[in-house]
Amino acid sequence: MDLLDRATARTWLATAVAEARAGLAEGGIPVGAALYGADGTLLGRGRNRRVQDGDPSVHAETAAFRAAGRQRSYHGTTMVTTLSPCWYCSGLVRQFGISRVVVGEAVTFHGGHDWLAGHGVQIVLLDDAGCAAMMRGFIESNPALWNEDIGV
Q1: Which residues contact 116 (CB under 8 A, 6 or more apart)?
Q2: pTM: predicted TM-score of the whole model, two decimal places
Q3: Do 50 and 22 touch, CB atoms closer than 8 A?
Q4: How many CB atoms lie within 10 A of CB 24?
Q5: Measuring CA to CA, which residue among 74, 71, 78 is closest to residue 16?
Q6: Is the separation of the CB atoms in 82 and 131 below 8 Å?
Q7: Is 61 a catalytic residue?
């Protein structure tokens, strides 16, 4: 698989950031994601909607995955997420053979991206200051909701 250039990764991250901001504006947890095809086509986008929908399974990555609809294969696809994926979402990436994950930041939450890398998934960690600032602000304002989201 070709390496993803950082300019493209940042452009794709902007789609996930827009979803995260929309989720925050709705009173939800500001995590956004997008699934891109091997040819760079946006297949689906989504945001964490646990609060809005009252459904603990609607993480940003699962929402983007669902929005993409059924694909014959996920080989070559890229999941872009504003935050390191939790174990649930990391499992989704592994289960369906998503080839690459672009992570906006992993400072506020270090999820399963190292595990994914150890199983052959290409990880592009952008260390985006804007993503980290958005999550820090949310966590400071909503510690109970954040702890619920990450299962503490």
Answers
A1: 85, 90, 93, 94, 101, 123
A2: 0.95
A3: no
A4: 20
A5: 78
A6: yes
A7: yes
Angle between helix 87-96 and helix 60-68 axes, rounded to 10 deg = 30
CA 133, CA 87: separation in Å to the nearest integer? 23
The catalytic position among 19, 61, 105, 148 is 61
pLDDT tens per residue, range 2-56: 678 899 999 999 999 999 999 999 999 999 999 999 999 999 999 999 999 999 9
22: tokens are 């929309």
Q: Are 105 and 132 in contact (CB under 8 A)?
A: yes
CA-closest candidate to residue 79, choices 111, 56, 108? 111
